[in-house]
Design brief:
alpha+beta, 3 helices
Length: 135
């Protein structure tokens, strides 16, 4: 019988797993072996940990196959960087929409959801006021 190698990161009975976050008394980084897999929509495991303790109902988000740990860490780091970039972009967009940024920024109407003709009317009014104050 030909066995295919798994590339999807799924966990099977007998696989070595690593806790990627604390689970009860089990610290992050503890290794164990999966003994039972339960669930359909919410997959959970019975794990025999290396310290001799058994634990049931271990959530699939709490453990990663030992051979995928470095890949999991890289994915988590990339996700954190992407989230930070989105937050930074959102903060910059909020500053522009609140008038803290350059009012003439390209795409200002699309970001703030204000129609372009109203933004132009505002620019003209500011220009008139500046001309009156100067003159």
């Amino acid at each position: 019988m030909l066995m295919r190698r798994r590339t999807d990161g799924s966990v099977r009975v007998g696989d070595r797993v690593v806790a990627v976050k604390p689970i009860g008394d089990i610290p992050e980084g503890m290794e164990g072996r999966v003994k039972v897999i339960d669930g359909f929509g919410w997959v959970r495991y019975w794990v025999a940990w290396d310290n001799g303790e058994w634990m049931g109902s271990v959530d699939s988000a709490s453990v990663v196959r030992a051979d995928r740990l470095e890949q999991w860490r890289a994915e988590q780091e990339a996700a954190q960087q992407a989230a930070a970039e989105r937050a930074e972009h959102a903060a910059a967009g909020a500053a522009t929409a609140n008038g803290d940024g350059d009012g003439d920024a390209a795409g200002g109407g699309a970001d703030s959801r204000v129609p372009e003709h109203l933004l132009e009317r505002s620019r003209q009014a500011r220009a008139r006021k500046a001309a009156q104050a100067a003159g």
